[in-house]
Model the fold of this input.
Amino acid sequence: MTYRLPIKVFDFFSGCGGVSKGFQRAGMEIVFALDYDPESGETFRKNFPQATFLLSDIENKSDVDKPLKPLIESNRNHLKLFCGCASCQPFTKQNTSHPEIDNRRTLLGAFQQQIETYLPELIFVENVPGLQKIEDQTGVFGAFLMALEQQGYKKDYGIIAAQDFGVPQKRRRLVLIASRLGPIELPKETHGEGSDHPAYTTVREWIADLPPIAAGESHPSIPNHRAARLSPANLERICATPAEGDRRSWPESLKLLCHSKDYQGHTDVYGRMHWEKPASGLTTRCISLSNGRFGHPTQDRAISVREAACLQTFPRDFVFHGSLNSMAKQIGNAVPVLLAECFGKHFISHVKQNL
Done:
């Protein structure tokens, strides 16, 4: 078969659209997306109006196939890429429940079923480090790898660091890429020692130009430049935190009981970001002062929704929808746009080499 470009993207755990935006910026076309969260879906729909979005669970295969099958058929002459960045909670260190009974462990298996049904030429999977260790190679990830091999895919996977691809954030993730066109390898790092850009990008480069706002305020003209309110005590704490500092700089009157004099852990909590370094890994509570080093480098507040989005390398015209907590969750769960763009360009180069 003679395939046509652009590559058509089908995003099965789209969230707000980090992967899709990165692949779009690389030159691909977003055709289909699926997610079960309504507020993430609203964000996706409004930023990708040309795509078909389905609010559903991937495990409801008959519901998913209704819009998906005709889209696959109408794009049969195009290369297709399936994204599978499934919910990561079952595989994180923080999940202390019994993972064997967590239904979310079946998400990768449901994604595998979609691959086996439609056989896309290209596959992209991103998740937290640790997924590949679940029950070693006989578990959920091992079964997924075996299924890819049986369907004729060549693959590569490994733990990558987002800062090695220009993202101003220390974020390690497992990434797998696969192709039915020929052998494929993970792309080379673009930043860091031994690359063309030895220095990592910094917090300053990505958010310093945004105008100041106070805790609890929203900027009148910059979308999502909104900071969470602070209690009087936490406002005192951030005011007492020097540049690049953390809770260890506070006077005794502001310290929490759980942070005793001898306790040295969790020093990032309530800390300020460093202007000249990448940020710490953003979480689903990335705009909360008490949940990580999410304090603004100089202003007396936590970072805003827009600043968090910038550190996830979303473009400024990408607008988030939903409650404040939901927008933070959408951003924290997203794949950094620039990271996805680098992988998108890598896929395009792979296609050109193999066709």
Remarks:
- Residues 337-354 form the longest helix (18 residues).
- Strands lie at 4-11, 29-35, 52-55, 78-83, 122-127, 154-161, 172-179.
- Confidence is low (pLDDT under 50) at residues 89-101.
